[in-house]
Write a structure and sequence with these properties.
0% strand
């Protein structure tokens, strides 16, 4: 319908660009109806998307926070579309004099809305990337000692994975595999005293298990593997930094 209305308009001189075209001819018969129709469709669509996203986001997750940014961006775009549609209809009906002010303001809104929408769609990936780097730093020293120096054979072929969460999960699993290998070499019993991140870190440093068994090396029930390895890694780093013990092996 928009194409039919546009092609049915009277001939008009060429404009330098789309912005100048809107200024000069957007309020004229044919062009106004076409532009108003497009803007109303965009405004309704953006408004619906905003309402749906607002009811569906979860600010506790990276994807949910990304959707929140998308909602703001699309809301700004809906304001842009409603503003342009309202002006075009009013100018076509003769209720207001043709002016460039609405186009100036709405162009800025379109830029802001587009940037926010693009940022929202990429937010989850950006946040997961930096979150993954932060999580890996928590057990980087433990990984260097336990996996790279002692048990490099447990390393997995996933360094080129594009998903940061997958990389972090694989690195944490490698640490658990290396702990199991170390437990076999040290002859730890299958069952032992309840382990803490601090006791595991001390055993890795000194070789003194303190009664910890193989079952204590695994994450407790309900604890995420990455969270558990990060806790052990932090305890290992603190123990090394304190100078309380020396790395014995």
């Amino acid at each position: 319908m928009a194409v039919v209305l546009f092609l049915g308009a009277a001939d008009a001189p060429q404009a330098r660009d789309g912005y100048q075209f809107d200024q000069l001819y957007g309020h004229l018969p044919g062009y106004a109806e076409s532009a108003a129709f497009v803007m109303v469709v965009a405004a309704v669509l953006c408004t619906i998307i905003t309402v749906v996203v607002v009811h569906g986001w979860d600010l506790g997750t990276p994807a949910g926070r990304g959707l929140a940014i998308v909602a703001v961006g699309v809301a700004v775009l809906s304001v842009y579309a409603w503003m342009r549609a309202g002006y075009i209809v009013a100018a076509r009906a003769g209720w207001v004099e043709p002016s460039t002010h609405v186009f100036d303001v709405s162009t800025e809104l379109a830029l802001v809305g587009s940037v926010l929408t693009m940022l929202g769609f990429t937010w989850a990936s950006i946040e997961r990337f930096f979150m993954g780097r932060s999580q890996r730093r928590d057990f980087a020293e433990l990984y260097q000692v336990l996996v790279k120096q002692r048990w490099p054979g447990v390393m997995r072929e996933s360094w080129s994975a594009l998903v940061p969460a997958r990389q972090v999960s694989d690195r944490a699993s490698e640490v658990l595999d290396a702990l199991s290998m170390q437990a076999d070499e040290d002859g730890l019993p299958e069952r032992g005293r309840p382990a803490t991140p601090e006791s595991i870190a001390r055993w890795v440093c000194t070789g003194e298990s303190g009664g910890v068994g193989v079952d204590g090396l695994r994450p407790p029930s309900g604890t995420d593997t990455v969270k558990w390895v990060r806790a052990v890694g932090k305890a290992f780093e603190v123990l090394r930094a304190s100078g309380e013990v020396e790395l014995q092996r």
